[in-house]
Amino acid sequence: MFAYELHRINHAQLVREAAAQRLGLEAAVAGRGPRLFGRRHGGHGAEGRVTGGDRGRFVRAA
Question: Per the record, where are the segments of Basic and acidic residues compositional bias (predicted)?
């Protein structure tokens, strides 16, 4: 019976450690978060990258 109780304690500890590690990973991913307007990404300004033949169609906003 004592071995079983030690096993249960060890199992509970491993479950807590896994949950803490998972929470830390989720926090790290959430910390990066979505890119908001106005933030520079990939060397391009807030308006993003212009692709295709539509370069002259729209002008840059003031």
Answer: 44-62
Per the DSSP assignment, residues forming a β-bridge with 52 are none
Greatest Cα pair distance in the chain: 79
Tokens of 32: 């990066």
In this structure, are residues 39 and 25 in contact, taking their beta carbons and an 8 Å threshold?
no
Residue 41, beta-bridge partner list = 44
CA-CA distance, 19 to 21, in Å (whole number)?
5
Q: Each residue of 36-51: pLDDT tens digit?
A: 555 555 555 556 665 6
- pTM, two decimals, is 0.47
- Eight-state DSSP code of residue 36: P
Distance CA 10, CA 22 (A): 18
